[in-house]
Design goal:
0% helix; mainly beta
């Protein structure tokens, strides 16, 4: 099996910056797409940013130009640099990865989530 563990969420003022990190651990044979999702109270979970194994990225329109996703394939980690944060960015942020484990084959894995609150 594999685990994804996020870190970096906290309270930040509007206009501020925050960096989220996610590390995948376990007996991992390969990782394909990875990404960050978020879920605000009363709303559906939505894709914020995704990154493929080759480094190609995609972003939600609401975060383009403000957020940057990156990954380190050697360390099985991804990061989300969030700048110019807005109150509407407040949500629980989840890390997601499509990966292959030794005994489980390919599958989608989720982290436990990290709370980001943007408020003055």
């Amino acid at each position: 099996q594999a685990q994804l563990v996020e870190s970096g969420g906290r309270l930040v003022q509007p206009g501020g910056s925050l960096r989220l990190s996610c590390a995948a651990s376990g007996v991992i044979l390969g990782i394909d797409d990875m990404g960050w999702y978020r879920q605000a109270p009363g709303k559906q979970r939505e894709l914020v940013a995704g990154i493929g194994s080759g480094g190609n990225t995609n972003y939600a329109d609401s975060v383009k130009g403000r957020f940057t996703i990156s990954r380190d394939n050697a360390k099985n980690t991804i990061n989300l640099q969030m700048n110019a944060l807005k109150p509407e960015d407040t949500a629980v942020y989840y890390c997601n990865a499509h990966l292959r484990t030794l005994f489980g084959g390919w599958g989608a894995y989720w982290g436990q989530g990290t709370q980001v609150t943007v408020s003055s």
